Amino acid sequence: MKKNIFKMKMGLHGKIVLGAFVLSIAASSCDGDLDVDPQNAINENDFLNNPDNAVQLVNGVYNKMLDFDMYSFSWIGITSITSDDADKGSSPGDTGTDKHKMDALTFDASDLSFNEVWKGRYAGIYRANNALFYLEQLQVDEALKNRLIGEVKFLRALFYFDLVRCFGDVPLVVGKIDLNDTELINQTVFVRRPKAEVYDQIEADLADAIVKLPLKSQYAARDLGRASKGAAQALLAKAHLYQQEWDAAFNMAGEVIGSGQYGLMDNYAEVWRETGENGEESIFEVQATLTKGLIQYTGVQGPRGTPDLGWGFNTPSLNLSNSYETGDPRRAATIMDVPGVLWDGFVAPATWANPRYNYKAYQSSIAESWNNNKDETAKNLRILKYSDILLIRAEAAFRMGNTTEARDRVNEIRGRVGLGELASVTLQQIYNERRWEMAMEHDRWFDLVRTGQAQAAMAADGKTFIVGKHEVFPIPEAQIALSGGILTQNNY
After folding, report:
1. Phi and psi (nearest 5°) for 400?
2. Could you tell me which of 130, 474, 135, 92 has the C-alpha nearest to residue 304?
3. Which end of the chain is more exposed for a tag (fewer CB within 10 A), N or C?
4. Of 187, 130, 200, which is closest to residue 160 (Cα–Cα)?
5. pLDDT on residue 438
6. 384: closest CA among 228, 255, 275?
7. Residue 63: which of 33, 26, 39 has the closest Cα?
8. 246-258 and 229-242 are packed helices; what angle lies between their axes, rounded to 10 degrees?
């Protein structure tokens, strides 16, 4: 069984009725899992007078990350299948609704994937805003309250970071919304704010979270996996990197490195296995358990054929496979070659439909906790890792002219996998190390866009990246319709 994972149960999978208010939002089209029977509803006074509800409020925000519209098929499609790291995979006749269009960069505003990613994040933000509103009113120990506020602000910042990377200018909602206030909804929920303002809010949330959150080592074992000070610092470093704020990215990455809370695991291949969950390299992960798994992340990417372990989508590309240096073990830890023998002894037969699969998404039914349900597995999803922070530090250092620090951090990464040290380092070498270290981890598309490499990289992969268009994804057509035309479209 999995260990050191806090439990996120109770009703904030569900709707808790607080007087006239409900924890759902029409504007983000939350799905039906927010419903509970009327007899399970509690009034506002009863809710606010029970301090145990403070933790449950926050658990409800965490739990949203397990849903299908957060980090499953649609997220996989727009962050990985779009990139040169991956192909659609599966079978030629199975498009995955729109994943063939993600692969070919022929997507448009009507595609389901964009709408699901949008809805999922705003549903999470709505939960976060409500949690913050009620946390301020709950009678609860002040230290616990501050920590919980820090956790929620980290999560809200994470959701907005996903949105701003995907869509650019997006609506910025940071308060509890009265669903009966049409004017307020029209002025906030449906109005896009400049991405600079969104980043300002992300930075403000993370700065407050850093003050309020404990170090990872200060959490009790039952709470390991909750957002920590280091997680907030790491996400803030990454937000600075995306804005080309090199000094701030360098310094904040340095705070994480200097904290003594994290390190590189000896075996790169174990980072994404159960043995690596919440370990020394982990800064923040989506926590899954045998009773509440991450919906279809593993199943979507599992090998397709006989025996059938999944849908077979998001297969590592030949481009990625051929890019590694000779002898780099990160290739074998990232790419599952077919046929072959897997790390747990399972034989990958030639009857599987694709020649390569994503090893990092594989969950062993032999050597890891398993509930016999490939569509809701107990595999955690890594969001922030220590190696990511080393690479952020290296890239920011190089941009600042500190090539010695950049080289040393890259060599730290290379040393872990037994590759020779570099006497000096170029920016392209840093980019290459980032690709190999983070391959199939949903950063590659965003890295190509933010570094200006997308057009050339996509051309090398046989795809056409249109400058001035593909830097952001289209605003979902369904959301524009829902807004009555208030939401504006990107250049699509």
Report:
1. -90, -5
2. 92
3. N
4. 200
5. 98
6. 228
7. 33
8. 160
Q: Give the CA distances from residue 101 to residues 117, 250, 394, in Å, rounded to whole numbers and listed in that order.
A: 16, 37, 34
Residue type, position 25, single letter: I
Helix (H) or strand (E) holding 10: none
CA–CA distance, 370 with 372 (Å, rounded to integer): 6
Q: Which DSSP string corresponds to 25-47? A: -GGGT--GGG---GGG---HHHH
Phi, psi dihedral angles at 296 (to 5 degrees): 60, 10
- Whole-number pLDDT of residue 42: 65
pLDDT single digits (tens) 210-260:
999 999 999 999 999 999 999 999 999 999 999 999 999 999 999 999 999
CA atoms of 477 and 325, how far apart (whole Å): 42
Q: Return the residue matching tokens 């022929």.
A: 106
- The residue with tokens 């919980």 is 148
Residue 284 φ/ψ, nearest 5 degrees: -155, 135
Sign of CA dihedral 404, 410, 412, 418: negative
| 11-47 tens-digit pLDDT | 333 322 222 222 233 333 333 332 334 345 567 777 7
- Residue 106 structure tokens: 């022929």
β-pairing verdict for 347-348 and 381-385:
unpaired
Q: What is the pLDDT of residue 11?
A: 30
List, in sequence order, every residue forming a beta bridge with 358; answer none if it has no partner.
335
Summarize the confidence of residues 380-404 as an average pLDDT. 98
At residue 180, the pLDDT reads 84
Query: Cβ distance 316 to 80 under 8 Å?
Result: no
Q: Read off the tokens for 247.
A: 């000094």
Compute φ and ψ for 66, nearest 5 degrees: -85, -15
pLDDT for the residue 48? 80
